[in-house]
Amino acid sequence: MKKNTFYLIFGCIALALLVIFWYSVEIHTPLLIEIAFIIGIVLVYLAKRKVTDSIEDERDVKITEQATIRTMQIFWVVFCAFSIGAVMETLRIPAFPRQSPGMRPADILPPRMMGYIQLGLLCLMIFLYVGFRIYYAKKYGDFETDEE
Amino acid sequence: MKNKIKIFRAMHNLTQEDLARAISVNRQTILAIEKEKYIPSLDLAFKISRYFGVNIEEVFIFDEKTPTIAHE
Asked: Could you please report the per-residue DSSP string of chain A?
């Protein structure tokens, strides 16, 4: 399979997932998009394995590896720091000095908000990864001009 | 790490694409190695030098002053 055919298939799968997403919102069935997403990703991986005119060599692997490591180094600190705070908020660990049992501290982050922030952090990871990938691709000569 | 890939390519009248295809890497990888933006693995360095039919030291030059056991 040619690389361009793969991109075409990838686009079709993405479009189909978008349609399924809206449909699952319409019928209030999150399970539908969850299953469709997993099937979509499996199909993308299967299609990628069939591509013949693309070589992933050691430089590509190194760029991916470095970008992943740097992303994870930043992401796990930010994500864990937020999650620890969120868990404390959920468990309502009392402040010092102890408050009377009748009083509950005001909600700083309601559970729904925590979910949104965690989703935002996941999006941040994608942006971080893309940024690091561009940086390392540049570092390892991806944007070098040809003399031939 | 310096290298003479460009010289060897010129000697054998090869393009970056030809060399890349012969050793199963991307053309951009050959370009990056030639421009010293990327240091190849030992495996790839051997593949390149074997392809040109020479020893690895003739293609790749390690220019750092590294202490050797003979000087210790």
From this structure: --HHHHHHHHHHHHHHHHHHHHHHHHTT-HHHHHHHHHHHHHHHHHHHHT--S----HHHHHHHHHHHHHHHHHHHHHHHHHHHHHHHHHHTPPPSSPPPTT-----SS-HHHHHHHHHHHHHHHHHHHHHHHHHHHHHTTTTPPP--
